[in-house]
Amino acid sequence: MTPDDATLTEAGLEPTHHGRILLIACGALAHEVLALKRLNHWDHLDLQCLPANLHLWPDRIPAAVEAAVEKHRDAYASVFVLYADCGTGGQLFEKCKKLGVEMLQGPHCYSFFEGNEDFAAKAETEFTAFYLTDFLVRQFDAFVWRPMGLDRHPELRDMYFGNYTKLVYQAQTDDPALDLKAQDCARRLGLAYERRLTGYGDLARELAVVAAG
Amino acid sequence: MAEDDIILSELSDDELVLQMHDDLYDGLKEEIEEGVGILLERGWTPYDVLTKALVAGMTIVGADFRDGILFVPEVLLAANAMKGGMFILKPLLAETGAPRMGKMVIGTVKGDIHDIGKNLVGMMMEGAGFEVLDLGINNSVEKYLAALESEQPDILGMSALLTTTMPYMKVVIDTLKEKGMREDYIVLVGGAPLNEEFSRAIGADAYCRDAAVAVETAKAFVARKHNQLGA
Lengths: 213, 231
What we know:
Chain B: Its EC number is 2.1.1.13. Chain B: It comes from Rhodobacter ferrooxidans. Chain B: InterPro entries: Cbl-bd_cap, Cobalamin-bd, Cobalamin-bd_sf, Met_Synthase/Corrinoid, Meth_synthase_dom. The complex is a heterodimer. Chain A is an alpha/beta fold. Chain A has helices at residues 5-10, 30-40, 61-72, 91-99, 109-114, 116-121, 134-138, 140-145, 157-161, 176-189, 201-212, and strands at residues 21-26, 45-50, 78-82, 102-103, 129-132, 166-171, 192-197. Chain A has two domains: 7-107 and 202-212, Rossmann fold; 116-197, no CATH class. In chain A, the strands form two sheets. Chain A has a four-stranded parallel β-sheet, with helices on both faces. Chain A has a three-stranded parallel β-sheet with strand order 5-6-7. By secondary structure, chain B is of the alpha/beta class.
């Protein structure tokens, strides 16, 4: 059973210790990874999630990943890290290289959900877009509104978002309720709204390679 | 009015400056503007108001941000309050000939629209006596070069928040090298995903992890440059 978003944000998810390949993922990917496991019957993949709120302090991600790899690697045939660079400025890549484990390609989840090549191709024209995924739409207040102090100081909104022009909701699932909530997020940020059904993008493609390994 | 409300105009100079430090910390823009006005009325030079009341107050904010006591929203509120004070002082500083430390051209790199850190650095540099030309966001190498050639600053500052845009700093530095201009400028870089190793790898002079470090680094490099020129 997938834990609720608040648990994934604050505590993450412990592995079940069933399976020969351990995926160490960001808590924000738990729903998507478990859905792909179910759909593809990847029972040999086990999942551990680190707290999604590590993204509020990206410099802490490499050490947290290292601790998880070191803790569990002896119990599995292999470990794969389901993080992209995620604002670590190459530090996570270097850490994974040192640990001898593979990780997702790309700069962040917005890129791999859309497909890294497609996302990069849009970089010149879409750099004023603010992205949300399914998880971030559900957890908008915990990841955007409150950490930025907008609950206490809404007057700061334009200092943060004044240079953005639109909010792009990258939908992993076709959920009208999330669409409505994402529209409301755009309204609160004072941005135009666009919904883009990305599905699981490169996450599905890369996981398929890991599962076949 | 509540009984414990503080009347700024009734405070001594020393008390008022300390109160302004508190008000900056709490991001109280109107109080800062009022405090600046009172000190000027009492005959303080604009430079003293800037350095002793505003910059000293923001230095406390910067230190507490670095130590994890304050967070970005509080720093933004403090910066906004300081901006209110600077708005009053800036024309007066120009008139009264405050000391000039040097000149800086600063901007966020191409493809990047994040300017909170860059704006803070620009403001603190101005507070420290640097003349700052802010190029804003999404700057191409051509725009940086044009500003360097027209403004002839001591320092070029580049900022990036994204892993995807920070490599553009190297494009700018490499172009400076190609044109034989690299040694004419002190190049400082900053932004959340950067670090000292990256700064060295791209050929910048220094990585500045926050606005206070940027000011201290800029002062040190400019002093060194002046010493070299004087030698």
